[in-house]
Each structure stands twice: as structure tokens, then as C-alpha cells.
Amino acid sequence: MQPRGRPKKYRIVRIDPRIRQFSPRGKPGRPEECVLSVDEFEAIRLADLTNLSQIDAAKSMHISQQTFSRILKRARRIVADTLVYGKIIRIQGGIFALSTRQNIATEPLLSQIEATNSIHISQYPSKPLAATTVSRK
Q1: Which helix (H) or strand (E) holds 41?
Q2: Does residue 15 sit within a domain?
Q3: Is the pLDDT of residue 70 over 50?
């Protein structure tokens, strides 16, 4: 079955999370888990850690301010849920392209992604671009 509606734009993420999972200590048994996508992780990093305005953070991710606001709201809800109820946070997935450059001309990258509907960019931080395999189904 084909996905309905407009396809999601690829979000530009500047930092690949080094730690992919956070687990609570002191909770007996195996706690539940919540998944935080990489673009949600980036939204929290830009808005809360670097203290960028939503407009500047949205420009950094190459998305609209309204989209950034929705991503940030969803990410904050997930983080609050995991902290309050002692759940595991797993950071994975999402539609993104990882860039290690601060000022990158992403138009060729985005047209390549849209033309092939999938792209694999190496995971080495010394390269100008790095990401996991990104595909649109």
C-alpha cells in the first residue's frame, strides 16, 4: 500500500548521537521503551542545548518553523514520558541526512535523495557528509 499524503522532507541533522540508548537505574525488571527519532533528537539539541530560536533551528534542519515546532513538541513529550515513568529512551530512525559541515549547500544532496529515493552516506565523521541509509517507501 502506498503512503498517503505528501512525502516527508529530509531533515538535515548536524550531530549523530553518540549514545543511542538511555536506561533508568534502580527500576526492577525490564522497563518499557520509547523511541526518539534522530530528527527529534536534533530538534531538542538545537532548541534546548544550543538555545536557538525555532526559526533559526528550522533553517538549520531545512524545514519550516511549523514542522520544527511539531517535531520539538513530540520530542519533548517523549522525553517527559520516559523521565516520569522510568522508561528506556532509544534514539533511532527518522527521515534525515547527516551533515558534519556547518554551512553546507544541500540542494545537490536533496535532489540526489529525491531522484533515487534512497541514499547511503558513509558513517565516518572525517567525511563532509555522514549518515545511515535513508530510504523513502
Answers
A1: helix 38-44
A2: yes
A3: yes
How many domains are there within the chain?
1
Q: CA 65: distance to chain centroid?
A: 15
What is the distance between the terminal CA atoms of the chain, rounded to a whole angstrom? 10
Residue whose cell numbers read 539539541: 45
**Residue partners of 45: CB distance under 8 A and separation at least 6:** 15
What are the pLDDT digits (tens) for 20-65?
Answer: 999 988 877 788 999 999 999 999 999 999 999 999 999 999 999 9
| Euclidean distance between CA atoms 120 and 129, whole angstroms | 10
CA dihedral 10, 6, 91, 109 (to 10 degrees): -10
- Kindly write down the DSSP assignment for every residue of 111-134, as one continuous string: HHHHHHSEE-----TTSSB----E
Would residue 66 count as lying in a domain?
yes
pLDDT tens digits along 73-85: 999 999 999 999 9
Domain that residue 41 falls in? 11-135
5 domain-assigned: no
**pTM across the whole model:** 0.71
